[in-house]
Amino acid sequence: MAERMIVVGGDAAGMATAAQARRRRDRHDLEIVAFERGHFTSYSACGIPYWISGLVPDREQLVARDPATHREQFDIDVRIRHEVTAIDLDRREVLARDLDGGGEVRERFDTLMYAAGAVPIKPDWARSDMAGVFGVQTLDDGTALRQWLDAEPGPRRAVVVGGGYIGVEMAEALVLRGLSVTLVERGEQPMSTVDPDMARLVTEAMRGVGVDIRTGVRVIGLSERDGRVSGVETDTDPIPADLVVLGLGVRPNTALAEAAGLPLGPTGGIRVDRRMRVTGVPGVWAAGDCVETLHRVSGMPVHVPLGTHANKQGRVAGINIGGGYATFAGVIGTAVTKVCDLEVGRTGLREQEALAAGFEFVTVIAESTNRAGYYPGARPMTVKLIAERTSGRLLGAQIVGWSEAAKRIDTLAVALWNKMTVDDMTALDLGYAPPYAPVWDPVLVAARKAVDALAR
Amino acid sequence: MAERMIVVGGDAAGMATAAQARRRRDRHDLEIVAFERGHFTSYSACGIPYWISGLVPDREQLVARDPATHREQFDIDVRIRHEVTAIDLDRREVLARDLDGGGEVRERFDTLMYAAGAVPIKPDWARSDMAGVFGVQTLDDGTALRQWLDAEPGPRRAVVVGGGYIGVEMAEALVLRGLSVTLVERGEQPMSTVDPDMARLVTEAMRGVGVDIRTGVRVIGLSERDGRVSGVETDTDPIPADLVVLGLGVRPNTALAEAAGLPLGPTGGIRVDRRMRVTGVPGVWAAGDCVETLHRVSGMPVHVPLGTHANKQGRVAGINIGGGYATFAGVIGTAVTKVCDLEVGRTGLREQEALAAGFEFVTVIAESTNRAGYYPGARPMTVKLIAERTSGRLLGAQIVGWSEAAKRIDTLAVALWNKMTVDDMTALDLGYAPPYAPVWDPVLVAARKAVDALAR
Known about the structure:
The structure is a homodimer.
Chain A: E1 3-8, H1 12-24, E2 30-36, H2 48-53, H3 67-74, E3 76-80, E4 82-88, E5 93-98, E6 104-108, E7 111-114, E8 118-120, E9 133-134, H4 139-150, E10 157-161, H5 165-176, E11 180-185, H6 196-208, E12 212-215, E13 219-225, E14 228-234, E15 239-240, E16 243-246, E17 250-252, H7 255-260, E18 284-286, E19 293-294, E20 301-302, H8 307-321, E21 335-339, E22 342-348, H9 351-356, E23 361-369, E24 380-388, E25 394-401, H10 409-417, H11 422-425, H12 442-455
Parallel strand pairs in A: 1-2, 1-7, 2-3, 7-18, 9-16, 10-11, 10-16, 11-12
Antiparallel strand pairs in A: 4-5, 5-6, 8-17, 13-14, 14-15, 19-20, 21-22, 22-25, 23-24, 24-25
Helix pairs in contact in A: 1-8
């Protein structure tokens, strides 16, 4: 009899696991059943803002593999609109509710992959069922928001609460759709994923396209009229709104896991080992936005919900479940985003994180250009480096620029991954041609400046 | 009495040396005299094609620091239009000819920086003084070519001989100026700096903009009419031309050095140690396009004339001459270029070089896209990796793509610099967001494919 794997959650981590396992074991050896609460599998949640804005015309473009493809090409029994409601580790069973057809199914497993993703953080004031309030976590969320936008008459005034990646991207998307947009951020700056001195550039760019950014403002409630949202109440002035987008971040979706007794770490994510096995629970695996992972620079566990990690972790789990050997090496906090025409990249620790990890460090900010200064289209690029004071080792880097800036962070990410010192980095043989870089690449300019700072 | 340094050659390497030395020692401690044969100092030779095409409007934009700036801001006694004609190591003197004023000067030195650059390779047939034949090595060469193009009536039919970086860039520049352009390449493909399978994409792109590319054709002579070039004779058909550009590569400019007894290595470049001291010759330094350097992957000496190395080597020499400590770590062969709208990057060894170095390896070519497939502007990107068979270590990489492709080579260059294996590389935490990368970055896609190839 074939071994039986149940996958809880049909997005990146779960389906990458299933596909990798299938590559190594056919259906006579491993039967795979995947439960997905929503309507979609294997889609790009990161792409939702671009579909909302209209930049990506069709929702289906965001779906890498639909359920039919998983069934037909990979022999994976995908059941969408099925919400797993309980996991019984002793009986090796899951219970799932058919959200459309009604009724419950009970399915046996030998191997369980828990890939339930993350859920939006909702303060008490956001726990309402009034119309016009949206998270942007799943493609179903995005679909609901798109319908609200496309209705006649559509909303005109949007408030985005929270200035993280999703908040910033959604604010821009809504501006592109012609709405008047206010972004409310509790902290000093939106885009707190980079240091305030770098985030300031992002704030300026967003104001430049007309986003009304209110910082240091706390939302305390929503107001409604006829069951529809009519405004956001804050600790200062109320803000009228006929659309509210929640961008307050996410937390690991672990309700089911906790109930089943799976171990959680200090970040609230599920604890897994290097092979993505749930620590101490034989036959149970977890991957994606619901797990915590090792930060290679701080050495501490972190929760970094990001599609690229989910895919890598799923691949690792699937190789192992398939009988191979693979480990997930951890993360270093690399992230890139587009904010209006501004490109933002970061890797490693930002100042606050480096302090929290106990590092003593110097920081430098170097101004340069993306191309040779004389080459058409040359634009400013700002590179910030954080280097350990005694060793000179790179701890973190941030880039803000106007074009061809964001992905330069990868150069720094690989340097950081390899524990390079800023002194070593000044010697790096990077590509030089006038359309692509000044003769001293911005990364080298910053490394030289960091070497000088360390010598002081 | 101040120590006295003479710099032979006033471009990147020489002037970077002078500027760095000056940062650490003032003119009472170190007197600096720099001789430059041409009219310009510290200019971007790599930028010449873009000035020729008109993309960069003014020649002066290519000059990073003119002689007056060097004199006034750095107390460097720059003498342009002075050609050094002899170096006497015993008497610690150089002899220089004043090309404009006439006459000769004799100058004493304690320290000598030899930074005479490179000279174009000229077969016998190219050693002619007929009008309309140009190299593109110095800004004076570029100026002469620009004058030829700007004359009335200007040339209409150009032949570029040689399909290296400069040949390819010049062919495009001349097309942009409206000339009919033929590129003659002796080998199988132009752009032999990447493997033929990757160079083919470049050939196609160049043909797409109308360059007539003739491969496997050898030039054997030039024909003339009234002292002006009228055509190129080849081992097949003659090609009419009223402008010929030589792009046959360069060799280290070592005539003076050899006469003075400086040691040359197997590549024909001057032999220097890690601090850029000429091996075995006290008080004499060399840097830039005239020296040979260590290739960190093959372990062999190479001659890689490139502005970015010249600047780094000059900085290293200048720090040392200034009393500090710095070493040049060698190169890994990273290069990027723009060919029409195509972006080309390479690092490490190409197949032929890896064979010559004695490596046994696998190669993979992975097709991917620069952005998430659904994001507007997504274009194909082709990544080739070469990995050592037994260790899995990355030996070389090449990228060809249509936008945001070239500088991705830096990610691979840093991985290669750090001797990463392709297996390690699959774990790299690279930036992901739909405008900048698919969820599996092209670099990761290629690394995964290489891991699979190694397992076979």
